[in-house]
Amino acid sequence: MAIQEILVPDIGSFKDVEIIEVLVNVGDTINVEDSLITIESDKSSMEIPSPATGVVKEVKVKVGDRISEGSLVVMMEVAEAAAGAAVTPPSQPSPVRGEGAKMTESKPVAPVLSPSPLVGEGLGKGASSSSKLDFSKAYATPSVRKFARELGADLNKVTGSGRKGRITQEDVKAYIKDVMSMGGVPGRGAASGNTLGVAPMPDIDFSQWGEIETVALSRINKLTGEFLHRNWVHIPHVTQFDQADITDLEAFRKQLNEENAKSGMKITPLVFIMKAVVAGLKAYPRFNSSLDAKGENLIRKHYYHVGVAVDTPDGLVVPVIRDVDKKSIMQLSEELKAISGKARDKKLKPADMQGGCFSISSLGGIGGTKFTPIVNAPEVAILGVSKSDIQPIWNGKEFAPRLMLPLSLSYDHRVVDGAEGARFTTYLAKMLGDIRRLLV
Ligand code: CAO
Asked: Atom 5 (ligand 1): residue with closest C-alpha?
């Protein structure tokens, strides 16, 4: 064994270029052509590959260093036969933007390139779906692209946290973690239009009709969109509308808030709705179930964890409040405040959003009369709540002003029949109309 200096190869007239990524650590075993560092000029990025196989003994550079041809990158232990003078990589550095992109100094690499000839062509029929993914528009190094392909992650859906939005290996890992935590398959995403044989959406240049700007979707937007799309396509939805008379509940809620004014704890209608939902899940257990993967069995749950859709600046998230049946109205109010705060501060962990039995999407604080929420699979139903308002309700003798709460229950029609859907909302309305019944 001998120690070899690995130097920066001929990189054209690139001089004094910044290192934006160091891809190896001391102790790593490196093969010929494995990337060592990524450098970036104001014109383009490229990876410097290793000219030898060996073990990294010392890393002589760090992110932010500036290098030129001949700069020392790493000290590597190589087999005696391979050792000689300091070596520079024999192969061409690899471009970062767009697979198959031509790297030329005079022509900056465009942020968007046409699809790589490597993608789609020359793939055997048996190629996996992940190997067919077109990453040509993703801004990532070849090693990150390779990593994403190996894991079947669709780079187009990964938000880059690196410089200028470059996607790092950590971004790919975070994406995979998110997808897995939401029960998905990386790369296959949700139900893409193709699974239905539907033509893809056209790529339209809107600037032909006026001024435009392009705003990237957040990571949450992309993930939520993917799962909503999957659920919308896979689940036959029906939405049942109803309304609950919450006049008495509202009087009680206001009284509680007055009594607790000093503590600063605010009770909203949502916590009562959570309690009513749990009563409904107990009375109609099909709503507290999930279909198994083959769609042949129902998995019935004997716990009562309720997801609550929270609107955050970055998009919609659904944290789960556990064991709602065992908690008081005050405890639920505290927990709702804490978890929605955590959601808005981007502090939710994947585990905070897992294990829900049923979800509630409340737009009551905003407005609207009814809407059709999308079932949050693998759950089989979701309750949409809109803003309550005073309505004239016939009490048998006269019209009386009552505070009515609109309910919109969407359910998976494979699991829940229409009659059961109507029974569930009727039951909810009964519970909310007289919350003493929640104690019975
Ligand atoms: N009718 C009338 N008023 C209502 C109401 C209803 N159904 N629900 C809540 N309110 C009132 C509250 O009492 C509160 O009033 P005060 O400020 O006077 O006390 C006000 O509206 C604001 O409530 P809130 O929205 O802060 O609290 P919440 O407990 O009702 O909801 C949360 C918490 C996290 C669910 C909510 O803030 C949120 O993010 N909602 C949006 C969810 C969403 O985006 N869903 C769509 C998903 S797509 O299907």
From this structure: 364
